[in-house]
Structure formats: structure tokens, C-alpha cells
Amino acid sequence: MERAVVRHELARRMGPQPPVSWVLDEPAGGLAALEPPELAAVLDQVPVIWPVSQGLTFAFLAEVPQALGCLTPRQLPDWVKGILDAYEGGGLAAARLFMAEVERRFLCRLRDRGGVAFPAVAGRLLPYLRSLAGRSIDLAPAPWAGTDVATIFLPAEIDLGADGAAHRLVYKLVASWQWLMLAEGSFWPALPDGSHQDLAAALASSSRPDLAAACYWLAEGRRLLARLGRRLPGLASDLAPLWPLLVTGRPAPALLAPGHGVVETLWRLGLGTAGEGPPELAARIGQAAGLLARLVKPAATSADSLAVAAGLGQLLADLPRGGLVPPPLLFLGEPDLAAVAAGRLRRRQEARQQFVEALGRLLTQELGVLPPPSPGPTVARPQGDAAVAVPAAAGGAPRDETKAREPELMIQVADREVRLSEGLRSLAREIATDLGALPAAYVQSALDMAGAGGVGREVAAPLAGEAATGPLTYDEWDYRRAGFRRNWCRLLEKELTPVQSDFVAETLTRRRGLLVHLRRQFEMLRADYRFVRRQTEGEEIDLDAVTEMLADQAAGQPPSEKLFIRQLRNERDIATCFLVDLSSSTEGWVGATIKEALVLLCEALERLGDRYAVYGYSGMRRLRSEIFHVKHLEEPYGDAVRQRIAALAPREYTRMGPPIRHATRLLAAADARVRLLIILSDGKPEDYDDYKGDYAIEDTRHALIEAKVRGIHPFGITIDRQARDYVAHLYGAVESIVLDDVAKLPARLPEIYRILTR
Amino acid sequence: MHAQDHRITQAPQEEPYYLPLADELTIATTAYRQELPLLLKGPTGCGKTRFMAHLAWSLGRPLVTVSCHDDLSTADLVGRFLIKGGEAVWTDGPLTMAVRAGAICYLDEIVEARKDTTVVIHPLADDRRELPVEKLGQVVVAPPEFMLAVSYNPGYQSVVKDLKPSTRQRFVALEFSYPDPAREAAIVRHETGVGEGLAAGLVQLAAMTRGLTDSGLPEGASTRLLVHAGKLIAAGIPARTACRVAVAGALSDDPELLAALEEMVSAVFP
Lengths: 758, 270
What we know:
Oligomer: heterodimer
Number of helices of chain B: 12
Distance between the termini of chain A: 54 Å
Largest sheet of chain A: 8 strands, mixed
Strand order of the largest sheet of chain A: 8-9-15-14-13-16-17-18
Largest sheet of chain B: 6 strands, mixed
Strand content of chain A: 5-15%
Strand order of the largest sheet of chain B: 1-3-6-9-2-10
């Protein structure tokens, strides 16, 4: 094809403002020699890449003629997907690398040969890992495996020269192993009295710290292997053929520094990938293997591993220093004890706070407000210092321990037993695993909180001041006096300045697949026809009714005239108000994801014809709560609404009471069979003044209760990893959902709406 | 009304297997003696229907079970005239039948029924304990042996389907949840005949699936799913396959979530 024609075709696909034509001359020249089907396939990809990056488009056009030497035109779209993934992950350099290595980075994977990268497994491994841990834990790519308690790091790519399935299994092993180290207390060997040894100090006190660490992780590795076999027998059996793969490419023990050579040999023995160690060390290897054997017993702990490691250290102490130190094993990585210690402290504080708050709330609910702590309720102490009966090692009971019934977790207060919720129980177990037992102080704190009617004590009463006035004033609930502060908040309804941007158009292009799917699903909701029996007129005769009429007639009863079936469309008659949190803490996610979610939702809702309103909310102090109009209930969805969505931006604080009461007022006035209030937020309600803590939560909760009383169904979508307990308290467990990843919102928001209203 | 919409079982001779979780049997028996209706709340497959069968056995009463759906009409419950041999013959619906026979009538998934249908149980569910049969011009008074029980799953569901306060405030509510691991394993063993290790593995798998609300799984594997998987395993299907078809496949259609469920299955079962 002529270069000029190609140039023109390229320009046509580069949006409304293509670059000047001489810029396109060179790429057009490269493409002109392609066969027509190949050229068509390439041109098809230009509008896909152009909106993402113009530089990337030119890089793609430069590389594609060569790549087509080994790619077919049909493979091109998948290759481009890979390029865009690489670009989003590592910029233009990563995308160029991806394009340059067509064979290794694309075709091998297509044939399920070759390495696997982190993004390809993260989606399946994250729910798997959380199901293991029983708590929210994250995955992230890193140069090597490791953990800081809150996150497990996996290698960014694993390529051991095997097939894709093997590499995916290795990823699963790495994730499971890192979790096992946390769950089995590898980082904090427990002494018989329940206290923990300082692992870092114990290893550092050795005369050869590097060898001491290698010995400890060898010993602990032997114990964990046995544990893995008992806790996850399926994984252990899958791994059996894989172990040799994990040691291939590692230096042979004979080449290593003698001490490390012994350790490496013992690792290989443990993994069943034997091979003889250095012959001159055979005697020591035999002795060491004897020491390690006791760690396979079910009762062995990480403290035993530490003791065995000390024995190994002595056994190897006189071996000459110096020589090669092997790289860390792939699944073990380089344990970062400082990061684990810091992460554990953070997690301990979080767990304490969550536990005390949730238990305090439960006690307040169950027992009402208790009398002051002295003479005070008594706490049953069935196990020494523990206030709640939790077995010391009850963290995620391993298979062989499930036989023993876990004691019921119960708290006794003033002769009344309080049953803990599942969430609280798992928190209590986690704390007990961490500290050896659940400290009585935690329960006492919760009791104090319940006794005082909530943690509100530490929060000073909101400043007294002039009552707010204005056209829109709302009461605020003060839980401490169980009454309203009348006309306490002033709410201003504000207009957003519409923003002219191609944000909406871009979203619609980028999310085209999802949008098509959503529209179809929403159309299915609309096409919900039903047959209505016993009508006075209709398309068909209702045989049941006619039979009944004849029977009634025969029985001397007056015959019915409602003998027809009519097909009616289900009248949905739903009015929904979406309230979107615009507090400053939403910076980053309001920026793009929430707006994207709103665009997709509006587009899908247009197919359905349900009435809906969208408002943003923010503000500062009680006299300036603000609500931002995006779309009123009866307003049609059009350019103005799109521009207002594009104009949403993070603002100030989150006083949730006034906007909820405002939306309730709007919805209550709407004539609809079902009225739904969907609130999107990123965490606890909080304002600049004293609207925080329990005061804010209780006011918000009360506002939601007021909505329910007026026949409105509130539903909360919270994007917050730590949210669990207060969210259920705010909205009710069923009327809320916590998303831990904002990226899921564009897909989840329309889905939640669909499920709520189907 | 279709024949399969309701089921009448005479009080069974043999005790239906039911492992109590707390004091629910005592409460239900007391409610029965005090002529109070029962509301069973709980996630799907946690043992509500089995509990009713056991209760019927222990009280020695027949059990009439009606699975509610959105086409269920009042006549489907109360009864209607049918033509038999050229004559109009009145036929009692399952509810009327249960009232007359002093049986236990169990309306399963009551929220699925239309709201105008559920209103018919109101006079039965308060101290009047009577069922008006309009067509016959009769009011059938329930004998002391009669008991009404309804169930529903308060999980993540449509706001359009909810129990009206005027309906729910007539019942003694019993909350059901999944049993603790030891009890659940005992149930799986008893129902399926699998060994201790396999039962514990199934329970471990269920526990893993039950905390994944954030990952898009609103309800985890129920005890019933475990029993299904256990039965397949006991009949010779490999454990992984059984869990894939009876647990993972029954929980989700989402490819990524299915992949994660597969990872859980293959981690637990060799």
C-alpha cells in the first residue's frame, strides 16, 4: 500500500487531533510493506494504544513490522494487551523490553512455556491467601519473597525454565510458605511460659551470625515442611515433583563455604532432592540430620528450631570461614526481621484497638450501659491471666488439632454471658496467638468503654455555640445524652463547576467490555415480564381460574369473572440516591476510580430507566456541611451530568449525618415503591471539630436509622481495609459491603445496585 | 399448585440426624408447648430444614413443608374447589391440611412468597390461631398440636424482598449459623461416611471460603455443600474433583474466584 495512504489511515485512527503528517511519515514507511491483512490488524490496534500514550504508539509502530515475523495478525490484540500491561507496570522502558522480546515474553507464555509474572497469579492467589490467613492480608511484587506481616511479597517474576503450570505452583508455594512462617510463629519463637524470644537478638549473639541465621532457617524449614504436610496436604503432594526444580541452578554444596555447604546439603536432603554433600563433611552432615529429625514431630515449635539451630551452630563452628554464600531459597527469600517486628507491632495495636472497640460496642448493646467500673462487673478468668478462654496456640487450628473442641469463647459480666461474634472470635484468636493469651486488660478496656457508654469519654463534647440557621438545618444525634442537638448543622447545597474533559469518553472507550456486559445485565433486569393471573381481561385464559369458576358455580358459589392471564412488565418503580464521599482522604481514588464507577453506573442505569440522583458530600465543621449536586432524581443524564462527574474532586472532611439526613428528606419526598440510599465512603465519619470517634459513628448510625424509619433502604459501600467492625455497626452487617481494593469499584458498584434491586 | 411445591411427611419412626448447636431444640419445644410460631433465620444449607424434620420427629407430629416462590397464591396454601367426576370438590391446601391435622407447617424461604400471600398466615401466627377459609365460609381453629414455622436467609439479598415487620413480629426467632469445626466435621462424617481426616479437610475448606466477602463471595460453602462433596468422595470420586464440582462450582461463576477456590481445594486435598 502507498505510504501516503497508510499515513492517512494512521492519522484517521489517532483521534480528533492527529499529529502533523511528517511525524507519521516514518512509521507509515515501515508499515507500507506489510500484507493487507497484517496492516489492517496493526491499524486496528492504533486506537487502542493512542489514548494511553502517544510515545508508546510510535514505539509500537516501529516494532510491529519485525514482530509480525513471528506473530500472526490474530495474535496481535493479545500482544498489545501485554504491551499495555507492561507499560502500566513499568513505563515505556518495560513496554519496549516486552516488545523487543516477543519470543520469550509473549509466545512462550502463549504456549504456556516459560516464566510467569506476578500480575498473572495475583488475582487467584490473593483470595487464596486470605482464606488461609483468615484476615485481610495483601500481596505485592518485590525483588524476592518476604513479609512484613501486613503484606506478603512475592517475586515479580518466576522463571525456572519449566512450564507455566509449574511456575504458578511455585508462586502458590511462596505465598503459602510466607503465610506459614507467620502462622507458625517462625519470627517469634515461643518459650514454654508463653513469652517470646527475640529472634534477631538470638541470631546476632552468635559468633557467626550469617551461619546462625542459615542454621535457624534450615531447622525452621524442616519443621515447616512437616507442618505444611499436615496443614495443607494437597499442596504438599503437588509440590513433591517440584522440589528438584527449586534447587536446580543453585551452586553445588561443594563449591560453597564449608558451613553453608553443609546447610545446603541438608536443605536438599529435606526437600528429597538429595545428592551427596562434600565427602569430607559426611560425618557432620549425618550428625546434623540427626538433630533436625526431632523437628518433624507435630509438637515441635519454633523455639525447638532455635535450640536445634544452636546445636547445628556448635557442630559447624570449627569449619573454616570464607567462601561462597548461596543465594536465598526462592520460597524462603531473605526474612527481614526488623520489618516483621515493626509490622507485628502495628498489627498488634490495630488488633487491640479493633478488639476493644468492637467488644465495647457489643457489651454496650448486650448489657445496656453498665454501672461505673467500681465496684464494677467481674470478668471470669478461666485461664490464668486470660479474661477469655482462648487456648494459647489456637491460631487457625491445624488439622490434627481440630478434634479437640475449641472452648467456647465467652465473656462473663455481672453473671451474664456474652457470646462473641465470629469476627471478634477470630480477632481474639489472633491476639492470643500473638501474645500467648488474651490479656485481661483488653477486656477491661472494653468494659470501661461500655461502662462509660462508649469511648466518647476521651472526646470532648462539641463546642457549645449558636444554633445553626439557614434554609437547610439538620439535627444531630448526641448518643451521650440519647437526644438530638436541634438545628445543629447547616447544610449548603452547592453546584459544581462543570469540567470540559474527555474523561467520560475515555472511560467509555477503555471500559468498553465491562460496559457492554453491564448494559446487557441491566437490560435483563428491565425485561422482567411476569404473568398476572386472575385478571378481568388478558391475552390468555387462566385455566386454573376457569376450573375454579366452574367448581364454584357447581358448588353454588358466585362465579368469579377474573378468568384471564395478562403479561405485565414488572414495574420497577425504584428511586435511588448515591452519596459520594468527597473528603480529602479520598484523594487518589475520587480522582479517577470513583468517577469511572459513576460513569459506568449511569450508563448502565440509563438502560434500565430507574430514577436516580447523585450527590457528593464534604464540608468543614457543623455550620458548613456541603452537598454537591451531580444529578437530581428527575434530571436526565446528559452532558451536563457527565461534566459534573468529571468535576468531582476531594475536598474537606466527612460529616456524614447532615448529607444522609438531606438525602433522606429528598428520597422520602419521592414517590416510589422502593427507595434506596447508597453511600460510598472511604472510612469513618470525621470532621474538623469534635465530630469523630463514637460520637460521629453514633450520629451517622442514627441518621441511617432515621432513613430506615422513613421507608428508605440505606446501603453502605466502604473502601477501607480496617473497616469491618464499625461498618457492620453503622449500616448493619447485611446492608453494607467493604471493598478492600478501590480498583474493584467500577465493576462492583453496578453489580451491587443490580443485586439490591433485582 | 404443583405437586412438588409441598411435601407432607408423617412423623418419621427413625430419628432424623440433627446435632444441636445450642439450646434451639429446648426453645422450639417450649414454643410448641406455648403455641408460639417459629422463625428460622440463617444462611443457606446450615441445617434449618433438617432441624424442622428433627423437631417434628421429637414432637411426634407430621411435617408439611411448603417451598415458597413468587407465584404461590393464597389458594395454593389454603385450598380450592376442583372438579372431580362432574362435581365440585373442595381440596384443602397444605396449610389448611396441616391446621386440621394438628401438624407442623413449615414455609421454607417465606420472603420468596408474594406479600399478599404471606398475610394469610397472620391470624394463624398470633393468639387467635385460626385460618379463615373464605371459599367455604369457615374459620378453621388450630388445635394445640398445630405449629407454624417459617424460614428465611437474611444474607446479602434484594431490598425488594424483605419480611414485613407485621409478619416478622409474630414469631419466636431462632438464629442458625454454621456449626463450629468439630461439630461440622461430626455432621459431615455422619451424613457421608467419610473418614475423620477427609471430614476435617472439608470443614477446613469451608472455613477458608467463609471469610471472602471482600473478594466477592457473599456466602461461603454451606454444610450442605460439604455433605454433597463428602458423598461424592465416599462414592469413589477423587476428593479434588468432588470439591471442584460440589463446592467451588456451586459457589461462584467468576473465573478469578473459581481459580482461587481451586487453589484452596488443591492446597487442602492431595
